[in-house]
């Protein structure tokens, strides 16, 4: 799509963006949070400790599902860019995908018959869930560059997306601990996962379709220029073009490491909370509240950080700060300088470190994701084409490959530490736990340093972006003036 067409299409969107629009747009990310919380926090421990599947095998299935999904994303992004309807490019996807997504989500948490599924059955359901979720998330996030070109407004939109995404995931965590799986065995019991799945399915459908309906009056119109027809070859050629952008390569290298670290941290958290820190139900209920507090803190500091240091430096600072603060309790525990796990002092101190570590971790993710919007204009200036869907599907390719690899690493860590499948909190030997901790810490530090280096050297600054927007606006004005001169010359008084 040409810049002129994009500008005309965006004319209905008010500037600056009203708070109501930011809230409605962000609400659509609740579905991603529900999925991410389920896959990252509960799925591995559910299939491993509850259904009895080998952790390494489960993590392999999730890795393959993520890789398959990652390579479907370019097709979905390209189809989204080329959708040409009276409801625009993105809305048809946001109305069509949520209901089948909800149905398959329930099957993921209640395998047919209630029996332990085979490797192939788990793989098939996991792939289907991830593809349908992408059919919601890729079109939704691709709206960001269309809604605004402002450097800070884009950060704000992603702040709201992350806030709602985390809210969805944490709400499901609270419901799991307090409503669906309470009692002495908690999340280690099979009862309750069906209700967890049904509630999550309804919440995902409501968020995606509700957000789409709220933005309908602004984005429901034919694109100004009819896009070329879809083809598999074109879809993957645009991804190759995306990776030819220098800025996207920096983002991909740093984002890959950051998402690997996030995948490990989320998927191992329940193991650490239950077996290392010996959380009981009360502590598990407080855990999502602490995470939510960290997201609120992120919401307050990410804007000032970006204004002071820009997105690249903010990402580097956040990456190093997050793993340094987050791993400190584990090193102190292994060294023998930590209060007894399960005690009030241990839990309170851990939550203090966790609050600030996770705050910086989310700032890192917002900084990285927001960078993609600036790459869209860099690509447009070079090619005179906009390809939001292609770039954000490239972003999802990076994220999903990395997150899947992070979950896979967690499975290998659990297997290497020889944690029994029927383990109970307080009964696991400390050498097993210390090996789990040290393997996790080593991988986290390595990924954090890689992310800090590449994202910190991202080559598009605020000044670069604003000068690019100015050049493109000037070029558009010249083109408009030239067309006006030609039209004027054809009129003879």
Structure in words:
The protein is mainly α. It has 17 helices and no strands. Helix 2 crosses helix 9, helix 4 runs antiparallel to helix 15 and helix 11 packs across helix 15. It is globular and about 80 Å long.
Query: Which structural class is indicated by helix and strand composition?
Result: mainly alpha
Compute the number of strand runs.
Answer: 0
Give the number of helices: 17
* Radius of gyration, in angstroms, nearest whole number: 23 Å
Q: Please give the alpha-carbon distance between the first and last residues.
A: 36 Å
Gross geometry: globular
Short synopsis of the structure:
Helices cover 79% and strands 0% of the residues. It is mainly alpha-helical and 493 residues long.
């Amino acid at each position: 799509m040409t810049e002129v067409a994009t500008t005309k299409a965006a004319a209905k969107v008010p500037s600056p963006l009203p708070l109501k629009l930011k809230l409605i747009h962000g609400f659509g990310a609740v579905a991603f949070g529900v999925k991410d919380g389920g896959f990252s926090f509960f799925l591995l421990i559910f299939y491993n400790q509850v259904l009895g599947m080998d952790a390494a095998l489960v993590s392999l299935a999730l890795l393959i599902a993520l890789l398959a999904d990652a390579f479907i994303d370019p097709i979905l992004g390209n189809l989204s860019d080329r959708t040409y309807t009276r409801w625009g490019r993105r809305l048809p996807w946001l109305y069509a995908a949520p209901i089948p997504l909800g149905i398959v989500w329930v099957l993921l948490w209640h395998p047919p018959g209630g029996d332990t599924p085979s490797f192939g059955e788990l793989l098939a359901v996991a792939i289907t869930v991830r593809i349908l979720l992408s059919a919601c998330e890729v079109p939704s996030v691709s709206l960001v560059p269309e809604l605004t070109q402002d450097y800070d407004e884009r950060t704000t939109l992603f702040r709201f997306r992350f806030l709602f995404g985390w809210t969805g995931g944490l709400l499901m965590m609270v419901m799991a601990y307090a409503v669906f799986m309470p009692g002495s065995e908690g999340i280690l019991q099979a009862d309750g996962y069906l209700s967890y799945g049904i509630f999550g399915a309804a919440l995902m459908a409501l968020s995606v379709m509700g957000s789409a309906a709220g933005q309908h009056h602004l984005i429901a119109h034919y694109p100004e220029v009819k896009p070329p027809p879809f083809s598999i070859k074109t879809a993957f050629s645009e991804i190759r073009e995306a990776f030819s952008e220098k800025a996207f390569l920096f983002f991909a290298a740093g984002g890959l490491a950051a998402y690997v670290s996030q995948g490990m941290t989320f998927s191992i958290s329940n193991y650490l909370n239950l077996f290392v820190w010996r959380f009981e139900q009360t502590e598990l209920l407080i855990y999502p509240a602490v995470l939510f507090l960290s997201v609120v803190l992120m919401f307050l500091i990410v804007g000032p950080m970006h204004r002071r240091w820009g997105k690249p430096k903010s990402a580097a600072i956040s990456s190093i700060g997050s793993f340094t603060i987050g791993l400190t309790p584990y090193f102190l525990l292994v060294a023998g300088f930590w209060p007894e796990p399960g005690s009030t002092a241990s839990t309170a101190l851990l939550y203090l470190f966790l609050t600030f570590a996770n705050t910086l971790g989310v700032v890192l993710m917002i900084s990285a994701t927001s960078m993609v919007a600036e790459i869209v204009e860099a690509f447009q200036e070079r090619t005179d084409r906009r390809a939001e869907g292609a770039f954000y599907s490239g972003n999802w390719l990076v994220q999903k490959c990395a997150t899947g690899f992070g979950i896979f690493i967690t499975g290998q860590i659990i297997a290497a530490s020889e944690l029994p499948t029927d383990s109970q909190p307080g009964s696991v030997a400390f050498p097993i736990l210390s090996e789990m901790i040290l393997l996790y810490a080593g991988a986290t530090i390595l990924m954090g340093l890689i992310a800090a280096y590449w994202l910190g050297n991202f080559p598009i600054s605020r000044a670069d972006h604003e000068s690019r927007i100015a050049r493109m606006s000037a070029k558009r004005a010249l083109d408009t003036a030239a067309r006006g001169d030609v039209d004027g010359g054809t009129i003879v008084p």
